[in-house]
Amino acid sequence: MWLTDTQKIGVGLTAFGVLFMLIGVMLFFDGGLLAIGNILFLGGLTLVIGLQKTFFFFARPEKMRGTICFLGGILLVFFRWPVIGMAVEVFGFVNLFGDFFPVVIGFLRKVPFIGSLLNTPGISHLLDRVMGSRLPV
Question: Which runs of consecutive H residues, i.e. helices, occur in 1-137?
Fold first, then answer.
């Protein structure tokens, strides 16, 4: 599957958004970096999957709690409450994107260095318990 140029830009924006959020957390919840990271993440996600699919993803009734928490956390970061905003945002992120975690862990287990780390007995048992056996076929 090949990505279009717009989707490639979206992947870059999403990666930079995650990077800015990580740096913002490491710098003791710097509100400016967290806000820029949130904007880049949402913009990148929109460019990767498209505007209509993004809207339908966030507007699904079973994901409404996650959507409200995720967007509410972003607003709290914008209104200079970065610690509380990030906590609410992480809760919403887990509710929105939690279904993808087993797929991501399954992919990471096949990556050379990370896979050997994730397949060690203690970490593998912990990941299996936390994620369960919800991997697709």
Answer: 5-26, 31-49, 51-58, 64-78, 82-97, 101-108, 112-118, 121-131
| 2-41 residue pLDDT tens | 889 999 999 999 999 999 999 999 999 999 999 999 999 9
Judge if pTM exceeds 0.70: yes
3 state DSSP class of 113: helix
Amino acid at 70: F
Q: How far apart are CA 4 and CA 105, in angstroms?
A: 26
Going from the C-alpha of 123 to that of each of 71, 109, 135, the distances in angstroms are 32, 11, 17
Specify the length of the chain in residues. 137
